Every structure is written in C-alpha cells, then in structure tokens.
UniProtKB/TrEMBL annotation:
<feature type="transmembrane region" description="Helical">
    <location>
        <begin position="301"/>
        <end position="319"/>
    </location>
</feature>
<dbReference type="InterPro" id="IPR002350">
    <property type="entry name" value="Kazal_dom"/>
</dbReference>
<feature type="domain" description="Major facilitator superfamily (MFS) profile">
    <location>
        <begin position="6"/>
        <end position="604"/>
    </location>
</feature>
<keyword id="KW-0812">Transmembrane</keyword>
<dbReference type="Pfam" id="PF07648">
    <property type="entry name" value="Kazal_2"/>
</dbReference>
<feature type="transmembrane region" description="Helical">
    <location>
        <begin position="339"/>
        <end position="359"/>
    </location>
</feature>
<feature type="signal peptide">
    <location>
        <begin position="1"/>
        <end position="20"/>
    </location>
</feature>
<dbReference type="GO" id="GO:0016323">
    <property type="term" value="C:basolateral plasma membrane"/>
</dbReference>
<feature type="transmembrane region" description="Helical">
    <location>
        <begin position="37"/>
        <end position="60"/>
    </location>
</feature>
<dbReference type="InterPro" id="IPR036259">
    <property type="entry name" value="MFS_trans_sf"/>
</dbReference>
<keyword id="KW-0813">Transport</keyword>
<dbReference type="GO" id="GO:0006811">
    <property type="term" value="P:monoatomic ion transport"/>
</dbReference>
<comment type="similarity">
    <text>Belongs to the organo anion transporter (TC 2.A.60) family.</text>
</comment>
<dbReference type="InterPro" id="IPR004156">
    <property type="entry name" value="OATP"/>
</dbReference>
<feature type="transmembrane region" description="Helical">
    <location>
        <begin position="371"/>
        <end position="391"/>
    </location>
</feature>
<dbReference type="GO" id="GO:0043252">
    <property type="term" value="P:sodium-independent organic anion transport"/>
</dbReference>
<feature type="transmembrane region" description="Helical">
    <location>
        <begin position="226"/>
        <end position="246"/>
    </location>
</feature>
Length: 649
C-alpha cells in the first residue's frame, strides 16, 4: 500500500514538473517577442534548466540514495515552485508592452494618422528609450529556470530507484511505465495552459483592448505568458506536500528474508535506521570517484549513453521549436499551435510509452529483446519522418521581402518614394491585391480611417488594384496551400510520435538492467547528467541559431538593435529544422551497430559465467557425494573384515 502511495506522490511530482517544463516550451515565441530577443537566446534560457541540473545531479543521485529520499524530493519540489514564480516576476516589474508600429513614431499626430511621413528624418522620433534597460529582464527568466533545474534534480533518480528498491521485479517495469506516462500527460495540460494564455493579451486589464491593432495571429502579439507560470508554480508547490509524510524505506512485499532481497536492498536495509548506523559524508565521497570509474568502464552503458545523447539532441531540438514551426511554416497562431501539441501530439506519446511498458511485461522481453524493440520502433519512426520534407508551404507574399515591387528589389520603389519611410519598421498591412506590405508607409498609403484592428488605409499607390488602393491591418492570410497540407502533417506527426514512444520504456529498462544493482542509482543519475549537459543545454541553442539564419525580416528594438524575427524563409526553415533533426538520428543509428555487438558479448559472457558457476557448484556437490560413497564403502569393508575375523576365530 505504501509503495502505491509513493507511486501516486511521485506521479503527481512528475506531472507538476512536466507541466511547468512544457509550459516553458509553449511560451518560447511569447518570450522572444516580449523581451525582443532572437531564437538562440531563447535556447540559452531553455537550456538554463539543464544547467541547474548539472550543478547538483551527480551528488544528489549518489548521496541522496543513502539519505531520506522522499524528503529530498519534497525540498526539490519547493525549489521548483520558487523558480517558476521567479520566471513570472519580470511582468510585474517591467512596463507595459509596446509593440512595433509605424504610426506611433510620427510626432504631432492627429486622431487619424497619415501613414505617409513627408519630410526628413527630423520628423520621426525613436519613441523614447526610457524602458530599454527593462528588456534585460529576461535574466530573471533564466535564473528562475536554473532554480527549477536544481529543484527537479532529485525527482527522477531518487524516485525511480526508490520504486525499484521496494517493489517486486515484475511490478517495477509497470510502475516505471506508469510514472513515465504521467510525465507525458503533464505536457498535455502544459500546452493547453499555454494555448489559453496565448489568447489573452499580455497586459489584460491594464489596456483598452479596442485600442490594440494586432490579433493573436500577428507576429508582434504577446499573450499573458506570466499567468501560466503562476498557476504552474502553485501546482508544483502542492506536489511537495505528500513527500514530507512518506517513510525513508518501505516494507518489501512478500517474505523479507535476506534471500528474497536484491544486493541493493540488503545494503539499503543497513541504512534504514539512521540512529543505529551512519556512514559519514567523507566515507561516501571517498567511494564516489572509484564507483564512477567502474560505471564509465562499462562498454554497454557507455554506448547506450552515446546513442541516447545524440537521439535526445534531435528530440529536444525538435520538440522545443515544434510549436514555432507550426506557427511559422503553417501560419497558425501560437494559441492554436500549443493547443494541437497538447491535444493531438502529446497523448500519442503518452499512449506509446504506456503501451511500450505493457508490451515489455506481456512479451517478457529480456535485455536484448528490449534493445531490439527500442531500435526497431526508432527506425520505423525515422523512415516515416522523411515524409515531413514533402509537406511544404509557400512563402508568404511580402512586397520587398519575398516578392519584388514591380521587378524592383528592396523595400523602396517609385510608388513609395514620396513618403519618408523607415526600412526597420514591421507594421504589416494587407493590400486589396492580396500582397502584404511591411508597413502602410511602404505600401504608399497616405490616409487612414477607423481605429484599432478596424483601421483601413487608403490611397495606397503601391497596391495598385484598378480603382481600389486600400489596405487593412495585419498580414494577408494566404493559407490555402497550407490548410490542405496541415491535416496530413498532424496525422503523420501523431503516428511517428506514437511509434517512437513505444521504445521509450523498454529503452529505459535496458539502462537499469544492463548495470549492477549497486550502481543503479548512480547510473540513472549520471545518464540524466550527461544527456542534459550534452543534449538539453546545447540542442535548443544551436537549433535556435540555425532557425535564426533563415530569418528574412528582423524586428527592431526601440533604441536600435535587432529584436525578434518577424518573418522566416519557409523553405529554408523546413530544410534546416527537419534536416538537422534527421541527421542526428542517422548518426545515432550508426553507433547502435557496435552497441548490439557489445551487448551480445556481455550477455554471452554472463551466460558462460552462470554455466561455469553452476558446473562449479555441481562439481562440489559431486565431490561431496563421492566422499560420502567412499566413507560408506570403507565402513562396509571394515565391517566385512571384522566379520571375517570373527568367523576365523
């Protein structure tokens, strides 16, 4: 019963950390726009979570296994919630969000602003730089995420090793499967929360919504990103409560004699009562490096580590920027992209992971069986992923960016030469001709009517539709080709996610089973440390940098300098994003080949050792039997001799 209570508590902690982690991923584009930063910098913020892990994971895994594991997990959950609250802090310190608009930059404006500024640069103003220093507030987001990383550290290695120590072997795989599944259900709610908050304007309650000229589909829109972090922080704080009341160790199910216990359980029983026996920290520390050397000298473990590091580079980079890919490539709003990730993609992953654990139990897979199963599912997923390259959308038609103005390259042409326009502005308008213009000024518009989202610009000389030269706010939809392709993209995304996830639990159990029981806690901890250091930190950064290289038009900060990207080259984005993801997977498959050879050798060696041991045991028993026979035969001879003597006498 206690093991089931711990399973429920650990599942809730996994749910909370997964919810806040996925919510962070869902707010990537919102944070980019709010703090005016490029994608690679968002990658640094995203990777800072792993930096927090890196600081403490090896020691938490090693020392934590010898201390009160549930209480250490509770402390971790409290730290995670504090970190989540710190992430939301900049919203309450920074000023109101002022999005980029060409109209705001004109001095002495009347109610209906003339988009065409006639004159010189003296008539334009930079709109004031007083709030510019506030934009470095993203440092708080980074620091909060580091603290989240530190807090999350004990949950996985200590929680999983606790389950494995105090449950029967056949239940361990199912329990790990359950916990892993719950950790994938968390992101469903994380992305749904992201979808909900992305619809709400960032300064809701502080601004009149009718004065806002942008919609959630606009590249400058920022949702109420801070709200989700407050909700996630409260949930994480609640998840800490049960662990304070759980015991240091649990009774084993069934007879608890030494013959029924694993070597790790026997060693753990020694540390059960802290008053009786206490190993000092210096003694523990003395063992740490030799134990680590033994672990890293294990060829199968080392190969498994290399394969998972490369696979996770591909997976983390892909998942981090997937909502952004849906937004940019298929021209969906951030809210819709997050909603689809939560409702369609993540449940497929959860179902795959649970089915993988169940199949492993039903098929009674050994280590080699689990390795083959994980490899097979990953390979099928890889082949199916190649079809994503065929699912393309055309670039948005933006004059001077993706299209030329009447065979003239660049933003400036004869039709807007009468206006003094800024090339750095991003305030798109949709012309009646179905082409998007970077700003009303660059569309050659001279008048405007209406307000907010309903503003209509007129006398736009660059639009040039017979007798009708108007333009409306925002980009032109142009979604026909994308709308046809998008359902196929979603369907394939669900199928590949499910198939790849099937190998998740067998792959994880392979990690646990290929190592000696006493090294299990350290093996799990070091695996987490290595994957987070070499995949979790760099992947979002270099994926972000490659995505940045496909940007066609950068936003401008109020005091100069590059802000967030406003529009990407769709084709280059697709090739860079998918190409990098699949190239990394190809490398991991090549490393799997020596991995299988090493694993079969290890299993063969273990089998030979077991046979030799059995033969040695059998030989000892045979010798004992021979001795027994010899003694009996000797005693028989002696009795015969004595009978002969008696007869002679």
């Amino acid at each position: 019963m206690s093991s089931q209570m711990f399973l429920v508590a650990l599942s809730f902690a996994y749910f909370a950390k997964a919810l806040s982690g996925s919510y962070m991923k869902s707010t990537i584009t919102q944070l980019e726009r709010r703090f005016d930063i490029p994608s690679y910098l968002i990658g640094v913020i995203d990777g800072s979570f792993e930096i927090g892990n890196l600081l403490v994971i090896a020691f938490v895994s090693y020392f934590g296994a010898k201390l009160h594991r549930p209480k250490i997990i509770a402390v971790g959950c409290v730290l995670m919630s504090i970190g989540t609250f710190i992430i939301a802090l900049p919203h309450f310190i920074i000023g109101r969000y002022e999005f980029e608009t060409s109209a705001r930059r004109i001095v002495n404006s009347t109610l209906n602003v003339s988009p065409c500024a006639v004159g010189s640069s003296a008539d334009l103003t930079q709109g004031g730089c007083e709030g510019e220093s506030n934009l470095s507030m993203w440092i708080y987001v980074l620091l909060g995420n580091v603290l989240r990383g530190i807090g999350e550290t004990p949950v996985q290695p200590l929680g999983i090793s606790y389950i494995d120590d105090f449950t029967t072997e056949e239940n361990a795989a199912l329990y790990v499967g359950c916990v892993q599944t719950i950790s994938v259900v968390g992101p469903v709610f994380g992305y749904l929360l992201g979808s909900l908050c992305a619809k709400i304007y960032v300064d809701i309650g502080f601004v009149k919504m009718e004065t806002i000229t942008i919609t959630p589909a606009d590249a400058r829109w920022v949702g109420a990103w801070w709200l989700g972090y407050l909700i996630a922080g409260v949930i994480t704080l609640l998840s800490a409560i049960p662990f304070w009341f759980l015991p240091r160790s649990l009774p084993m199910s069934g007879p608890r004699g030494p013959e029924k216990c694993t070597p790790e359980q026997k060693s753990f029983m020694k540390h059960k009562y802290p008053a009786d026996e206490h190993a000092s920290f210096t003694e523990m520390a003395k063992d740490f490096f030799p134990t680590l050397r033994t672990l890293l000298g294990h060829p199968v473990y080392l190969t498994y580590l290399c394969v998972t590091i490369i696979q996770l580079n591909s997976l983390i980079g892909m998942v981090t920027y997937k909502p952004k890919y849906i937004e940019q490539h298929f021209r969906q709003s951030a809210s819709k992209a997050n909603f689809l990730m939560g409702v369609i993609n993540i449940p497929a992953v959860a179902l795959g992971m649970f089915s993988g654990g169940l199949l492993m139990k039903r098929l009674k897979l050994n280590i080699m069986g689990a390795a083959r199963f994980a490899f097979g599912t990953s390979l099928i997923g890889y082949v199916l992923s190649l079809f994503f390259f065929a699912m393309s959308c055309e670039n948005a038609k933006v004059a001077g960016v993706t299209l030329s103005y009447n065979s003239t390259d660049g933003l400036f042409t004869a039709c807007n030469s009468d206006c003094f326009c800024s090339a750095s502005d991003w305030d798109p308008v949709c012309g009646e001709n179905g082409i998007t213009y970077v700003s009303p000024c660059l569309a050659g518009c001279t008048d405007s009517a209406g307000s907010g989202k309903n503003t209509v610009f007129s006398n736009c000389s660059c639009v040039g539709v017979a007798g009708n030269f108007t333009a409306s706010t925002g980009q032109c939809p142009h979604k026909d080709d994308c709308d046809r392709m998008f359902p196929y993209f979603l369907a394939l995304s669900v199928i590949t996610s499910f198939i790849i996830s099937l190998g998740g639990t067998p792959g994880y159990m392979l990690l646990i089973r290929c190592i000696k029981p006493q090294l299990k806690s350290l093996a799990l901890g070091f695996h987490t440390l290595a994957t987070r250091t070499l995949a979790g930190i760099p992947a979002p950064i270099y994926f972000g940098a490659i995505i940045d290289s496909t940007c066609l038009k950068w936003g401008q900060k109020r005091c100069g300098g590059i802000g967030a990207c406003r529009i990407y080259n769709t084709t280059s984005y697709r090739i860079a994003y998918l190409g990098l993801t699949l190239s990394l997977r190809t490398i991991s498959f090549i490393i799997c080949i020596p991995g299988f050879i090493l694993l079969s050798r290890q299993l063969k060696k273990e089998e030979e050792n077991a046979i030799n041991k059995a033969l040695a045991n059998g030989g000892t028993e045979l010798e004992a039997l021979r001795k027994e026979e010899f003694i009996i035969s000797n005693s028989d001879q002696m009795s015969d001799n004595s009978t002969d003597r008696e007869t002679r006498l």
